[in-house]
Amino acid sequence: MNRYKGFTILEVCIGLAIVGILATLSINGYEGIRERNNFKAMQELASKLALEQQHYRQKFKRYATQISSSGTSNSSYLVIPNAQQYQIALSSSNTRDFTATIRPTDQALQTPNNCRSLLLFSNRGYLRYETRSASGQNTTSECL
User: Fold this and answer.
1) What is the pLDDT of residue 103?
2) Which of 38, 49, 84, 118 could bridge across to 69 with cysteines, CB 3.0–4.6 Å?
3) pLDDT tens digit string along 86-118?
4) DSSP sequence for the chain
């Protein structure tokens, strides 16, 4: 009969290996959840941008062509808080429609590989979203 109480070295090593495997799996799962949440935040910013563009159009009779992250809106630009975390490019802004491309610039805001940029198209108030991968391929069906 064994008089010693405790675990053998082999039992401790197996326990540590199991804990290491579980930690690796949970960290990978956490990274995926974090990337999807960052993409959802980018979608929320796009929705806010669309709403602010509609307010801007009501006030100035056209869509804004520039974005700022601070100050007050005027006839030169539209103010979107937290815009410094994203690269927002407005193109073809006029009195009837606008197109915006949104990409995160902050390294902490990683998005899934297939959802690197979000495109927002507005034509007479009707909104349409598309996503692009890092290589520029249309990945809307995978991301939205």
Assistant:
1) 93
2) 84
3) 999 998 778 889 999 999 987 778 899 899 999
4) -----S--HHHHHHHHHHHHHHHHHHHHHHHHHHHHHHHHHHHHHHHHHHHHHHHHHHHHSS--S-EESSS---SS-EE-TTGGGEEEEEES-SSSEEEEEEEE-STT----TT-SEEEEEEETTEEEEEEE-TT--B-HHHH-
As given in the structure block, the two tokens for residue 141 are 């069906």
Q: Which of 2-6, 7-11, 73-77, 136-140 is predicted least confidently?
A: 2-6
**pTM, rounded to two decimals:** 0.79
Q: What are the φ/ψ torsions at residue 46 (nearest 5 degrees)?
A: -65, -40
Domain spanning 10-143 has what CATH number? 3.30.700
Report the 10 Å Cβ neighbour count for 118: 26
Over residues 59-73, the pLDDT tens digits come to 988 888 888 888 777
* Domain chopping of the chain, boundaries: 10-143
Beta partners for 78?
A: 67
